[in-house]
Amino acid sequence: MTSIADISILALKGQGIRGIIFDVDNTLTSHHATVLHPRVAEAFAVICSQFNSVIYSNCEPDRHEQLRRMFSIPIIEPGLKKPKAEGFARAQQLLNLPAHQIAMIGDRVMTDIFGGNRVGFYTILVDPLDTQEPKVLTWIRNVEKWRLKLAGFR
What we know:
alpha/beta, Rossmann fold
């Protein structure tokens, strides 16, 4: 998927998905931005109107406070870092749905996708919205792509 704008709501509903967990940086916003990226703003509103939704970001407390002001949906508290199962369990608790009815959407394989898969969620990998990010994240993405290629994906 290029972005959340490419997601078919009908297809998700057809698979029994009733809840969505969103990553933030490079999934909904540019890295550490305080506004939704224009490419996904409309799609985010539509998806949130059709599904119970939660934000789950590996952010520090100050960024978490920014996100609380940005979004009107629940946000997983800081300290519960992906891909640890505890944060995904908290998201599932907030959504009040069984795992097979939840989709995790994010741009990172080792946090968003691996974490969601290990707890039984349907996962959707999107391309990063912005290539302007810390060099360490670019390096990590390259390692993730290499691992996916070795495993026969993409």
